[in-house]
Structure prediction request, 244 residues.
Amino acid sequence: MHTNPTSPLLQLGGMQVAYGGIKAVKGIDLELYRGELVSLIGANGAGKTTTLNAIAGSLKIAGGEILYEGEKIHVLPAHKRLRRGIALVPEGRGIFTRLTVEENLRMGAYTRNDTDAIEQDLERVYSMLPRVKERLAQIAGTLSGGEQQMVAIGRALLSRPKLLLLDEPSMGLAPLVVEKIFEVVQSVAKEGVTILLVEQNANLALEFSQRAYVMESGKITLTGSGAELLTNPKVRAAYLGEAA
Prediction:
């Protein structure tokens, strides 16, 4: 199927998500174009993680639609979305703590059977994440938080995503480690993977993103380039810890 490169890779149209009758996401519109790094920022409980889970297919939507490469995918189960190239690195990393690092990485390729290409992709991930390569035989649960986060990103890359959904990659990590993680995110973006990033560290997220959306209690209230939102007084007051 040929898709128009100028049309969005991902489009949310009036998407709603509800938990037991309570609307967590209240009809949002969002677009993501190929090769973009876009962040979604907002306070805790704004609906950011819910949005990512709905795109990945781990939550059903209550209204609206999700278009991916021009097709409605909200009707597809999560594993079919993964096969289509949508990978989620969940909040809290979600790695298999009792498996080795290498086993974790290989789990990312479970929908693939192109053995040679998988080996090439593993090499690519190793060159991007040298810290991970040094610990292939180690049990993943014994790694530091930052290393686990890198394993989670590496695992997602092994599904060959076109769209990578990153949920709070810096959560609970020391500033130096966060810098490393963002370097990795940037190198993934440079390889042409489209990224939608949910991040508490609004300053860092906006610095790295071409565009960003601000979410407040289930709605998108602001959008603009990363640079615009960095200098927006409302954003600075609410998310960058500055007095208005």
In short: The two ends are 49 Å apart (CA to CA). The longest helix spans residues 175-190. The domain at 36-49+85-239 is CATH 3.40.50.300 (Rossmann fold).
